[in-house]
Amino acid sequence: MKVLGFDSVSSSCSVAILEDNKVSYSKVLRMERGHAESLVPMINEAVLTTCDNFSQIDVVGCTVGPGSFTGVRVGLSTAIGLSVSANKPLIGVTSFEVVAERIKMTKKQNEQLLVVVLETKRNDFFVQTFSVESRPLDQPSSIQATEFVEYLSSLKNPYNHILLAGDGVGRALGYVRDKPANLNLTLEEGYGGPQAWDITTLVKSKFESNQSFPIPKPLYLRQPDVTKQKV
Amino acid sequence: MLVLGIESSCDETAVAVVSVSQAKKRILSNVILSQNEKHEEYGGIVPEIAARSHLEHIHAIMRQAVNEAGISFDELDGIAATAGPGLIGGVIVGLMAGKAASLAYNTPFLAVNHLEGHALTVRLLGDVCFPYLLLLVSGGHTQLLIVRGVGKYSLLGSTLDDAAGEAFDKVAKMIGFGYPGAAKLEHTAKNGDSTRFVLPRPMAGRPNCDFSFSGLKTAVRNHYDSLVDSDSETKDLADLCASFQRAISETICDRSQRAINQYKKFYPEGNTFVLAGGVAANKYLCSKITNLANENDMVVKVPPSNLCTDNGAMIAWAGIEYLRLGKTSQLDFAPRPRWPLDESIKK
């Protein structure tokens, strides 16, 4: 079975292909902009490197957000174009799930909660907390940077240890200096945002445990900035 | 030749399939989802809301277009998508879906200039030869161009401020018709006296072919503000609508006459005047332009209104025009929020 996975919602553009249980192709390009230009040729290269043609891909997966609005649109509309035209199942995963998947693979999360912190490039963070079994414990949300410690303290945490991961960790550090003494933080800084190889493994397990595959919805976690007209 | 066209540069998510065999051109499907209702309460198009709506619906519209056409994606000879100009968030959705669909079966991809879609629509409907004069009037654009060939445009004039359709919508909103109110304005104007209110004809008599509508808009506001509530309110509004519609149409005709003169100077034998874009659906403007063209011994060609407003068929057709010339686009084609028609098109 071949799974194509890609991400364009963060500060990189990445594409990977999983064949059976092995990542047989992976490419990551760091970029702040230009995802709309790079993504489809990168997918094309991945497909041509590992298959005769696209029809040999069994499942398509991509991140649905949160991340840059443009990035979400670039990735999901590409995935939709592939899925609708070639009639392939499409599975969307959140940026949180992908980071949690990576942490699960590295087995670094011993007796601590995992809080995935994603960069918003504004005064807030996107956050979601996962159990030691990588089970989400709350809904994805956006919180103000100044409320970050409050968020961490409010978690029902049997361990008093929290592992922070995601591309927002670096900036979040600036807001945890006044944390309560009994709250112990471990930082997983090396791994940034979601990456395609983790998407493929996540997508494969979702594919195997699901029967139907409706078109995934984007996860923006922020309403459009608009005001209604004066009456 | 079978081509799918995707349009998502403003507030319509549209996909169509067009076929050409020998000389026979057919629109096999033309699915359009308008977002009007989503923007109504904001009094205009909100780009982020538009972009989200395109992403929400693009899969269903693509499927419907292909199903209605009775074809499958692997039969297509080309996939065309609007790559600009327009609202970037929406352009990205259609462009990426188009590039991805073209990757799936290694189908040639065609990045289409939205304006070129409007410009070439008449050739989908009949045998219209180059060079022709084009008046493109829509909610986002107001331009006079000589269409010399596919990808060959000479811009004669364009608007310095609002587009004509924008002026219609803004005036309609100003007088309480809500958004989008251009159609209601046209309807109301039918019963009005177009000579009652004195309104300017901006740019009239200027040597170039440019447009400006902001002064006209202000003049309408001044008249509207001076109207007193009375029993004749309905009549007042109808007269104001009629006066405005006449003023803007005569302005467009004045500019068009300049363009005709320039066109005739380059092409003395040329006799085709094409009216395109959403505002071409306005019957009053259409009849004014027809009269003007006839006075100049020109034939007017206007696509039916469902092909004047944004649609996928015009994008598919523009794609066919390029495909027939052997020109295709690369999969790294970048979305272009600004993309002037007269710029040499990099394919």
Q: What distinguishing features does this structure have?
A:
heterodimer, A: 231 residues, alpha/beta, Nucleotidyltransferase, domain 5, five-stranded mixed sheet, 6 helices, B: 347 residues, 2 domains
Describe the 3D structure.
The complex is a heterodimer of chains A (231) and B (347). With 231 residues, chain A is an alpha/beta fold. Chain A is built from 6 helices and 10 strands; from the N terminus they run βββαβαβαβββαβαβα. Chain A has 2 domains: 2-95 and 193-207, ATPase, nucleotide binding domain (Nucleotidyltransferase, domain 5); 96-191, 2-Layer Sandwich (Nucleotidyltransferase, domain 5). In chain A, strand 4 (59-63), helix 2 and strand 5 form a beta-alpha-beta unit. The longest helix of chain A has 18 residues, at 69-86. With 347 residues, chain B is of the alpha/beta class. In chain B, strands 3-2-1-4-5 form a 5-stranded mixed sheet, with helices on both faces. In chain B, strand 1 and strand 2 form a beta hairpin. In chain B, helix 2 packs parallel to helix 3 and helix 8 runs parallel beside helix 9 (283-295). The mean pLDDT of chain B is 95. Chain A binds chain B through residues 34, 36-41, 43-44, 47, 53-54, 69-70, 72-74, 76-86, 215, 217-218, 220, 224-229, and chain B through 41-43, 46, 48-49, 51-52, 54-56, 58-59, 62-63, 73, 88-89, 92-101, 103-106, 330-335.
